[in-house]
Write a structure and sequence with these properties.
54% of the residues lie in helices and 10% in strands. The protein is mainly alpha-helical. A three-stranded antiparallel beta sheet has the order 1-3-2. The chain is globular, with a radius of gyration of 20 Å. It comes from Amycolatopsis coloradensis.
Amino acid sequence: MTSRQPRSTTPRGDLFDPECPTRRLLDRIGTKWTSMAVKVLAEAAPHEVRFAELRRRIPGVSQKMLSVTLHSLVRDGLVDRRVEPTVPPRVHYRLTDLGLSLDVPLAALRNWAEEHMARIAEANAMADDTPAQSGSR
C-alpha cells in the first residue's frame, strides 16, 4: 500500500524560463547579507532578534542594506517582524517555519564556500597571472 502526497496547487518554478519568478527569488536569497541574516536568526530561533543586535552580529552591513534585506525576507514570508510602540520603536525579527527551512541549504552553501575558498583564490590568482587569449572562453 502506497501513500500519496497531496499535489500542490501552486505550480513549481522553472529556473530556465526567463519569465519565471524563481530567478528573482534566487537573486534575493543568494546574497551574502541574506545568508548572514538567516544564520543569525536561525541561531536565535525560536526567539526574536532586535534590529540593532542583527546589525552588530553582521559585520560590514550598513543600516540601509540590513533594512532592505529584512524587508525582502519579511515580504517573502521568511521572517516575521514585530514592532514595539516605544520611542524609539524596538523592532524584532524571527524566522518563520519557511525561513527556518532555508537555513539548511544556505548553511550548506556557506560551508562549501568556506571549505573551498582557498582553491578558488588560487584559481583566481592563476587566471590573473595568465595573459588573456583572444577569442578563448
